[in-house]
Amino acid sequence: MNHAPADAGAASGLPLLSLSRVEKRYGDVLAVEGVDLTVRDGEILTILGPSGSGKTTLLKLVAGFELPDDGRVELGGRDITYATPASRGIGMVFQSYALFPHMRVAENVAFPLEMRNVSRAVVKERVSRTLALVGLAGYEARYPRQLSGGQQQRVALARAVVFEPRLLLLDEPFGALDRKLREQMQLEVKRLQRQLGITALFVTHDQEEALVLSDRIAVMNGGRIEQLGTPFEIYARPANRFVADFIGESNILRGTVVNVGGGTLAARIDSGVIITARSPATHALGSTVGFVVRPEALRPLADGEAVDNVATGTVREVVYLGDAIKYVLDLDGGTGLSVRWPYLPSNRTLDVGARVRVAWSADLVHVVEWD
Description:
Number of helices: 9
Shape: globular
Helix content: 10-25%
Strand content: 35-45%
Radius of gyration: 25 Å
């Protein structure tokens, strides 16, 4: 198998997969609208979005299960826009596993090689090596019904990579697994992808999964890509209100600009509190902007402390999350604000109705257009 380091191609920025102005219609519905996207050699790129955003349709266009109405799809510099799925040399893992129930594990994994007329000796060697890679050595003679859900997913993964595809497509592959097993499989896929040097295009609606797995994330909505960037960029610097609201939990506060200059922006939110943010963009006085403040960015205000932003409110709700406590505050003036602080048994937990002052740095406020 190819054991080239996966990050070598990614570091060079060379694209393995390129989509240019790709569109797909179903009747009057434009499922994918003018998408431009490149996937670098050796990276995991995740297409993330809510149901109906077009992410699965986009994956089908890459796989060849659907043909675009417009645009071009290239793999390794070859035009595959209208190529058959079998001729594309792409591996694919589905949520449903899609294993052959009448075949043993080894036979399921061997199937793609046999379809390519690989010799028996090579098939046996590759199947054995691939099953060992996914932790299923010794399971060759079992049937899918004799395996757990996680083991079946490992077989599906082995079958998808055994023929050494240049590109691996994963369509919500862990959706049927419980949380703990899903997290284990996420790390397993990342390990395999790095070890084998495979380029992967991953589809999910799970934001946490995308943040854990991805080198880059493409956030889709309404058939379009709203933002493409690293997990840090997507989370810390969302391109617009949709991305800020969809990725993780955010306080998105509407404000009217009251001061600009020196790389900072100040705006009065609906409750009357003035919020300051670092912002290189120019916004006119009186214009409306959105402030994105993550719940973990807020902290209790210490006595005599000088900070960029301070707000006072009343605890409306307390939610215990295990490793953290989430408080929902009603600020003086009516605006709601969520804060999340690490839970430590030595710390006093606030009660509903408690008064609290919170503070946060201007560096932790991200400005987005409101309209």
